[in-house]
Amino acid sequence: MPRVLLLLPATSYRAKDFLDAARRLGVDVVVGSNHRQVLEPFSSGRSLSLGFEPNEQNISRIVAHARPYPVAAVVGTDEETTMLAAVASAALGLPHNSIKSVEAAHNKYRFRCVLAQAGIRSPWFRLVSLYDDLSETAKSLAYPCILKPLNLSASRGVIRADNEIAFLAACRRIAAILQQVPGATDAGHKNSILIERYIPGREVSLEGLLKDGNLNVLALFDKPDPLDGPFFEETLYVTPSRLSDGNQQEIFAETARAAGALGLRDGPIHAELRLNNTGAWVIELAARSIGGLCSRALSFAGDVKLEEVILRHALGFPEADLKREDRASGVMMIPIPAAGQLRSITGLEAARSCPGIDDVIISAHFGDWLVPLPEGDRYLGFIFAHAGKPDEVERALRTAHGRLDFEIAPAHASENKKVQL
Ligand code: ADP
Ligand code: CA
């Protein structure tokens, strides 16, 4: 039975879905996690404690572990783990995207450089150091612009600035976020911010699987809520897209070109694009699948889930039929309505009983401190729906959300609580 090394952060939402998929495929799993696993010596090689920085120490731990327990694939499950998966695969001689290509997708500045160089439609961009004279920088910019950290995800630290004052405030805010992020210490990530021209337009999200350099589109999601900033909290994802065939083909083609330019050839990709009257603009292309619990909105022929598609591909198994189910489907990442401590939720049963709703999952716990964007990086919960048409899915998600009420107690300034979800 082949064995797969799954890199799963302690805070991952995906552990159950990946482990279920592995079980379904009958493959052995080693969980590589930064969660301290006290029973590791007794786990017969099934668990491995490690950090996710792609450094010598973590790579040699993986290589040493793979001597008695050989693995057929190393799978990174989210942004935090993609780099280590690439570097460890190379060290073990396993097929994987090149380290260079994964690095180019992971580092937002490298990403912009590679796309612009390949002649792919790109916004004006520039890297600034927090040590620069930021007041001078602020004067030199055209507004509105977007500021973003180089290697965070889930829109954390992404801020729109409409003028010089907003730009300087956003720099301070991002600098504070970067101070809190472990692992962002390398190569200037902690001291750099990427500035991009703001691209107006409708946003979509594309879930794809690259096979030998060819893009297979698994799903295209519309994001029907306006994402104008200044922060970019994700809410609704609905598939199939209601965009015209022509628009969709353009989005597919631009995504494939971007993946090609980055040098990505295999495995899952998650891309975000904006569409306006000048065409489709790739905002992000990550060498991983969709985050949170959102993959539960996808189902393929034979009720195969996205995690199974990913594992099959990584292990070189006969591939699943990649046709998505016929019904429309969607997910709402429940917006965090306010900062504070989650005390209670009412309306859960009423939300769950809305027509079209499959489930409402609250991933935060009572007593947790909710932190909205741009600082936060945890979800409050997810609502899932199915229906015949995308409009009905969207309506069901909005109706269910409208039935939920959250009691959130604001933090008292004197308590100075720093706990996150
Ligand atoms: P992350 O990897 O943290 O999700 P992204 O680069 O995807 O960061 O940015 C998050 C969101 O911010 C995007 O989904 C988009 O809505 C918005 N955004 C990012 N860059 C731009 C841009 N240049 N113009 C307009 N909106 C942008
Ligand atoms: Ca994104």
Uncertain segments are 416-421
Largest sheet: 4 strands, parallel
Q: Tell how many strands the DSSP assignment holds.
A: 19
Q: What is the third-level CATH name, the topology of the domain at 3-102?
A: Rossmann fold
The largest sheet has its strands arranged as: 3-2-1-4
**What coarse outline follows from CA principal-axis ratios?**
globular
Named at the architecture level, the CATH assignment of the domain at 3-102 is 3-Layer(aba) Sandwich
Q: Radius of gyration, rounded? A: 21 Å
**Overall pLDDT confidence:** 94
What percentage of amino acids are in beta strands?
A: 25-35%
Which structural class is indicated by helix and strand composition?
A: alpha+beta
Give the bound compounds. Answer: adenosine-5'-diphosphate, calcium ion
Short characterization:
The protein has 421 residues and is an alpha+beta fold.
Can you describe this structure?
This protein is an alpha+beta fold and 421 residues long. Among the domains are: 3-102, Rossmann fold, CATH 3.40.50; 124-197, Dna Ligase, domain 1; 327-421, Alpha-Beta Complex (Aldehyde Oxidoreductase, domain 3). Helix content is 29%, strand content 26%. α1 (15-25) links the parallel β1 and β2 (28-33). α1 crosses α9, α4 (99-106) packs across α5 and α6 (134-140) packs across α7. The longest helix has 18 residues, at 245-262. The radius of gyration is 21 Å and the shape is globular. Residues 416-421 have low confidence and may be disordered. The site of adenosine-5'-diphosphate has 18 residues, from β6 and β13.
